Amino acid sequence: MSCGAHDIGYMFLGEVALGREYRVTISEPSLKQPPPGFDSVIARGHTEPVPTQDTKLELDGQRAVVPQGQPMPCPEFSSSSFFQSEYLIYQESQCRLCYLLEVCL
After folding, report:
1. Where are the beta strands (DSSP E) in the chain?
2. Rounded to an integer, what distance in angstroms lies between the CA atom of residue 6 and that of residue 103?
3. Which of 7, 39, 67, 92 has its CA 20 to 30 A from that of 32?
4. DSSP letter for each residue of 19-44
């Protein structure tokens, strides 16, 4: 959105419990929830942040990896219709919002 001469964006940073992940590489518009036996859906993209630049944190006693690197081609998912990976949850209880970031572009 624009605010005077500045463009401003908002991002939510949340802690998410993905559980058992169902992976897709093409859009499945009919998918309204994870298939039976799964808790979330991951649309795997053909680019991923460089893993050597990941930051490892400990949050509430749990280890978490935070990708920090520039996007690079991911050969395993080179035929994916998604540019980058997207993580989808379908139950509000799977997410705890932690931060709201205002970003000036």
Report:
1. 2-3, 6-16, 21-24, 40-43, 45-49, 55-59, 62-66, 71-73, 82-84, 86-88, 95-104
2. 10
3. 67
4. -SEEEESS--TT--SPPTT-SEEEE-
The mean of the pLDDT values for the chain is: 90
pLDDT (0 to 100) of residue 77: 93
Q: Are 46 and 67 in contact (CB under 8 A)?
A: no
Max distance between CA atoms of the chain, in angstroms, equals 49
- The two tokens of residue 35 are 């298939």
Using a 10 angstrom Cβ sphere, with 0-12 exposed, 13-18 middle and 19 or more buried, the burial of residue 2 is: exposed
Indicate the pTM of the whole model.
0.75
pLDDT at site 3: 67
The total number of residues shown for the chain amounts to 105
Secondary structure (3-state) at 77? helix
